[in-house]
Amino acid sequence: MSLEQTLNDTLTQAIRDKDQRMADIVRMIKSRITERRTAKGFSGQIDDAAVRDVISAYRKSLQKALPDYDKVGERGRAQAEQLRFEIDVLARWLPKGLDEDALRSLVRERLTALAITDPKQIGRLMGDLMKTHKGQIEAADVKRIAEELLTAT
Questions:
Q1: Quick one: 34 and 108 in the same domain?
Q2: Residues sharing a CB contact under 8 Å with residue 133, sequence separation 6 or more, in sequence order
Q3: Which of 74, 91, 108 is the endpoint of a domain?
Q4: What single string gives the DSSP state of each residue in the chain?
Q5: How many domains does the chain fold into?
Q6: Which end of the chain has fewer surrounding CB within 10 Å, N or C?
Q7: Which domain holds residue 46?
Q8: Among 47, 73, 91, where does a domain finish?
Q9: Is residue 84 domain-shared with residue 109, that is, in the same domain?
């Protein structure tokens, strides 16, 4: 079953269960998928990878907004809790990310394989890893770990 069909089924079930929060999240994802499908210059099919990209981008935008609501304290608490809930829900449709140790060993292995010894070449490493592990790793984490490893030697 495609991821888009899974979302449709989830929306249907949420409506039946009168779960407004879940229904709103799935509707937002579906509207962003529609935006992607009708975007100027887009031709092709929306496959599972495209749906994951949409969900990942939405999740990332929520994660960026979260600290702003945390800063305002009591006034932003309800919104921050809603964002955390949405981030957790979105995670169920995304591939599991690598933990810190696994990412560190992956970066170390790719640094050796690509013969990268200069921090100025980290972009090459990031391009390589982002292609092969898209959705599982964050570019900022790769950069941070690679810089640590390269400056430690």
A1: no
A2: 98, 106
A3: 91
A4: --HHHHHHHHHHHHHHTT-HHHHHHHHHHHHHHHHHHTSTT--S---HHHHHHHHHHHHHHHHHHHHHHHHTGGGGHHHHHHHHHHHHHHHTTSPPPPPHHHHHHHHHHHHHHTT--SGGGHHHHHHHHHHHSTTTS-HHHHHHHHHHHHHH-
A5: 2
A6: C
A7: 3-91
A8: 91
A9: no
**Distance from C-alpha of 73 to C-alpha of 68, rounded to nearest angstrom:** 9
For the chain, 153 residues long, the average pLDDT of each consecutive 10-residue run is 91 96 96 90 82 89 90 87 93 82 89 88 88 80 88 72
Could you tell me if 104 and 129 lie in one domain?
A: yes
Q: Can you tell me the distance from the alpha carbon of 23 to that of 53, in angstroms, rounded to the nearest whole number?
A: 20
Q: Which residues touch 58 (CB under 8 Å, ≥6 apart)?
A: 28, 29, 32, 90
For the record, the structure tokens of 10 come out as 């989830």
Torsion-angle region of 19 (φ positive above 0: left; ψ -120 to 50: alpha; else: beta)? beta
The amino acid that residue 149 corresponds to is: L
Tokens of 74: 């009591």
Place of tokens 């970066």: 107
CATH of the domain at 7: 1.10.1510.10
